[in-house]
Design goal:
About 40% of the residues lie in helices and about 10% in strands. It has 17 helices and 12 strands. The protein binds flavin mononucleotide.
């Protein structure tokens, strides 16, 4: 059995730095850090300290035992050992509000949820090739996308209707992400506006676009996002054919509340509550997703988007090549977290063909089923420029609010730094296809 490492002076100084990191993280999460200036000062000091890797020493075993509720569900964000533990905690919190339909909405894939589940399980088809005898105590996790430096390659995906899980959701999530240096893509149908979210984040968020079927509305949404400083518009293209969100429908049947206060019929009422549509005349709109969109819509959008234009939902090499022909600046390989079509195909399984198709000309991002730092590393190794998470941060939000989102991001950061060290990658550029092998 391994013996605990003797405590040396260098270990002590590492512990000292870790303690400083913990203190700064605590300060970052406190109301003291409510201004972007203080937040960015803390972020820059944090960036200069080494990350804490997971379970570095036996101190974790000596620390007081975790306190679990009688149901075995974590009672505080800090108790979580991995992001999965937030899922039952979030379920408990949402069901305590008698809102099974809201839980069903978050959990649902389509049909039998096969694609939702394979998104994560397919990461096991890649294994990691660890490299030994490399001093990787100090590693750099940052990535550069379109000239922006992100402290972490993990970004937060657009998730609509977050208000169902936290009254101030959009802003809460943005604040947590900003403090840890994670980029965020705001959903068109978030409860907070792109301007408020960018302010809370401390730097401009990206904007996910559901264009609607009225060009005047599309144009206003894009102009509004760009006026708020948004450097990238992400057009979602995987929601055109309709879907069968069976898990949602099943849980909706158990919901005894009168939902008509929020869910009044008609498009105008549907989006009337959404901050990004405030003041926009939506009387001619019949659907959010731009049903009937073709590549000529992308061309038209290209003429009005001044910054970067990405497509979210591309899952084939053919479409990736077509996107290049239409002047798109980046792709997000996504199947909407298994909420678009029941393809049974994981995003990680199609990533390589898309990366190879674009051949370095534009960045390729990915989301779907990312739950571990090792998943992040595998996606980067196959060629992703950055890696998105959806449900995990919402589990954190729904269970414990901002500390929950913060802890989810901290766990992923810690796991990622640990596996970077174990593979001897000193920076993200050193994570290459050689870092993984197909099982
Ligand atoms: C409840 C929910 C709402 C979502 N809303 C949006 C949305 O408004 N726009 C969008 O492009 N994608 C949306 N997505 C998809 C996410 O952006 C992302 O692709 C997906 O959640 C990633 O998979 P993961 O949840 O397994 O991490 C949503 C996903 C969930 C779970």
């Amino acid at each position: 059995m391994e013996k605990p490492m003797p405590v040396t002076s260098s270990k002590n100084s590492e512990h000292g730095m870790i303690a400083r990191r913990e203190l700064l993280n605590f300060l970052a999460a406190s109301p003291l850090a409510a201004t972007p200036t203080v937040t960015s000062m803390i972020a820059s000091v944090l960036a200069s300290l080494p990350y804490r890797a997971s379970a570095q020493s036996y101190d974790v075993l000596r620390a007081s035992p975790r306190t679990l509720g009688p149901d075995g569900i974590i009672a505080a964000a800090g108790d979580a050992l991995n992001v999965f533990e937030f899922e039952p905690a979030a379920k408990k919190a949402v069901l305590a509000q008698d809102a099974p339909a809201h839980w069903g909405y978050l959990e649902s894939g389509v049909d039998g949820d096969v694609t939702r589940d394979v998104n994560h399980s397919a990461y096991a088809r890649y294994s990691i090739r660890a490299k030994r005898l490399i001093d990787a105590r100090k590693v750099d996790t940052s990535v550069k996308i379109f000239g922006e430096t992100w402290r972490s390659p993990v970004f937060l995906c657009p998730v609509s209707s977050l208000g169902a899980y936290d009254a101030d959701a959009g802003v809460t999530v943005a604040r947590a992400a900003g403090k840890r240096g994670h980029q965020i893509i705001l959903s068109t149908v978030d409860n907070a506006s792109i301007a408020d979210v960018s302010k809370a984040h401390g730097s401009p968020a990206w904007f996910q676009l559901y264009p609607t079927d009225d060009w005047a509305v599309t144009r206003t949404l894009v102009n509004r996002a760009e006026a708020a400083g948004c450097p990238a518009i992400v057009l979602t293209v995987d929601r055109q054919g309709g879907r069968n969100t069976e898990t949602l429908f099943r849980m909706r049947r158990q919901d005894q509340r009168d939902c008509s206060g929020c869910h009044t019929p008609g498009f105008a009422n549907d989006v009337g509550r959404k901050a990004n549509f405030a003041g926009i005349d939506v009387s001619k709109v019949t659907n959010l997703y731009g049903t009937g969109m073709t590549w000529s819509f992308v061309d038209r959008l290209r003429t009005i988007v001044k910054g970067k234009l990405l497509l979210k939902g591309i899952v084939t090499a053919e479409d990736a090549k077509e996107a290049l022909r239409h002047g798109v600046d980046g792709l997000l390989v996504s199947n909407h977290g298994g909420r678009a079509e029941e393809s049974g195909q994981a995003t990680i399984s199609v990533l390589a063909e898309i990366v190879d198709a674009v051949n370095g000309r534009i960045p390729v991002l990915i989301d779907g089923g990312v739950r571990r730092g090792t998943d992040v590393l595998k996606a980067l190794a196959v060629g992703a420029a950055a890696v998105g998470i959806g449900r995990p941060y919402v589990w954190g939000l729904a269970s414990f609010g901002e500390p929950g989102v913060d802890r989810v991001l901290q766990i992923l950061d810690d796991e990622f730094i640990t596996i970077m060290r174990q593979t001897g990658a000193l920076n993200v550029g050193q994570i290459t296809r050689d870092t993984v092998s197909r099982v």
